[in-house]
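Example 9 (inverse folding). The structure is encoded as follows.
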C-alpha cells in the first residue's frame, strides 16, 4: 500500500476552515499571539482519535497542541510558554488546570459528562455532587462544555451545566482527520470488517453481527472478542489512524453497531464518519442521528437484525452498488465533518463567542443584540 494522502485536499480544507476561523476580530488577535492548545486527561483509545484529529488540524494552522496524559503532569508546563491557551479537559482535572490559567491567559473547554440524567444508568453516571462542587469552584474559567449529544438530548441531559454553572454546552460530534483518514488502493482483504470492542455491546453484536460473520469472510479487531461466540482472538490497535485507510478501503462492507440507548437518536459513533472518509462502505444498525449528517443515498441504516443481514448480503454480492454511496458520503465528510471544521467552531466559540458551521450548535450561548 502506497501513501496516497491527498495533500491538495488537506490544503484546501485547512485553508477554507482557517479563513472561517480567523474572520473575527478577537479570533484574529488570538491567532496572532503566542497561542496554543493543550489536552489534559486520561489516555483513552476512542477519545484519542478525536483529540489527535483536533491536534493535527491545529498544527496545520501552526497552533501548538500539547497532549498531556494523567501521570505526566510536569508536561503541562509546556503550555505555560504561551500567552493564550485553550485547555481541553474533564471535570476531575479542573483543579489541576485552573491554577495554570492565570500564568498563560488560559481558558477551558470541558469534555462534558451527562449532568441531569443518564440514558443508561448501569454504565453511565451523571455529574456527581463532588463534581458539581468542582464546577462551582472552577466553572468560571470554563468557556464551553463539549457534548456528543444532539441538541434535543443536550437539552435533556446537559442543561445543568447552563442553569447551575452558566457554562454553555456545544453539541460537539465526531469528525474525520483529513491527514490520516483517506481512501487507498489495496487488494480486497475480506468481505466484512469491524473495528471496535465486544464487551460494550455484546448482546447487540451477537444479534446483528451473528449471521453476517458466520456467512462471510471478515476481519475483526478490538478488545474482548475472545469472550464472544465467534472464535475471534482479542487484539488491540496501537494506532487506529495508521491502519484505518487500508482497513476500510480493503473490505466490501464495514459493519457498525451502536448502544441500544443510542437508538433514541442522541448520537452516532465515530465509525459513521471514519468509514466513508477512508473509502469504506458502511452498513449500520438503527441510529437515527446518522440521518442528521447523511441522507439515505449516502449511508445505509438497517431497521433490525434481519434487515441488517439482508443489506449486508446484498452489498457483498453486489459491490458495484456501493460506489455511489461511497463517493457521496466521502464528499460530505470532507466538506462538512473534518476536525478542521470542529476545531474552527470550538475555537471561535471559546475565543470569540460564536460558531461558523451548522453542526455544532450551542445551548446557552450568550445572545447578541
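The amino acid assigned to each position is listed next.
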Amino acid at each position: 500500500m502506497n501513501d496516497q494522502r491527498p495533500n491538495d485536499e488537506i490544503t484546501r480544507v485547512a485553508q477554507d476552515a482557517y479563513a472561517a476561523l480567523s474572520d473575527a476580530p478577537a479570533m484574529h488577535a488570538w491567532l496572532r499571539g503566542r497561542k496554543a492548545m493543550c489536552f489534559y486527561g486520561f489516555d483513552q483509545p476512542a477519545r484519542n482519535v478525536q483529540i489527535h484529529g483536533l491536534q493535527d488540524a491545529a498544527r496545520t494552522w501552526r497552533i501548538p497542541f500539547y497532549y498531556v496524559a494523567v501521570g505526566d503532569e510536569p508536561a503541562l508546563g509546556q503550555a505555560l510558554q504561551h500567552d493564550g491557551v485553550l485547555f481541553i479537559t474533564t471535570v476531575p482535572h479542573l483543579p489541576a488546570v485552573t491554577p495554570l490559567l492565570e500564568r498563560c491567559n488560559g481558558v477551558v473547554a470541558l469534555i462534558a459528562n451527562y449532568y441531569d440524567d443518564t440514558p443508561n444508568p448501569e454504565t453511565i453516571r451523571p455529574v456527581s455532587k463532588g463534581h458539581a462542587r468542582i464546577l462551582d469552584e472552577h466553572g468560571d474559567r470554563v468557556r464551553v462544555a463539549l457534548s456528543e449529544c444532539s441538541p434535543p438530548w443536550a437539552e435533556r441531559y446537559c442543561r445543568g451545566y447552563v442553569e447551575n454553572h452558566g457554562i454553555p454546552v456545544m453539541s460537539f460530534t465526531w469528525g474525520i482527520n483529513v491527514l490520516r483518514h483517506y481512501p487507498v488502493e489495496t487488494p480486497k482483504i475480506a468481505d466484512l470488517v469491524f473495528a471496535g470492542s465486544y464487551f460494550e455491546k455484546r448482546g447487540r453484536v451477537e444479534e446483528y453481527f451473528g449471521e453476517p460473520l458466520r456467512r462471510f469472510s471478515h476481519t475483526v479487531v478490538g478488545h474482548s472478542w475472545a469472550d464472544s461466540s465467534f472464535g475471534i482472538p482479542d487484539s488491540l490497535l496501537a494506532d487506529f489512524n495508521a491502519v484505518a485507510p487500508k482497513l476500510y478501503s480493503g473490505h466490501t462492507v464495514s459493519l457498525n453497531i451502536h448502544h441500544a440507548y443510542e437508538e433514541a437518536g442522541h448520537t452516532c459513533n465515530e465509525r459513521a464518519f471514519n468509514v466513508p472518509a477512508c473509502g469504506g462502505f458502511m452498513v449500520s444498525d438503527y441510529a437515527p442521528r446518522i440521518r442528521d449528517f447523511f441522507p439515505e443515498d449516502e449511508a445505509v441504516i438497517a431497521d433490525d437484525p434481519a434487515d441488517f443481514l439482508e443489506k449486508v448480503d446484498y452489498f457483498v454480492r453486489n459491490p458495484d452498488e456501493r460506489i455511489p454511496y461511497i463517493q457521496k458520503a466521502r464528499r460530505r465528510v470532507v466538506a462538512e465533518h473534518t476536525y478542521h471544521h470542529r476545531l474552527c467552531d470550538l475555537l471561535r466559540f471559546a475565543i470569540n463567542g460564536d460558531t461558523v458551521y451548522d453542526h455544532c450548535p450551542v445551548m446557552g450561548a450568550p445572545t447578541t443584540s
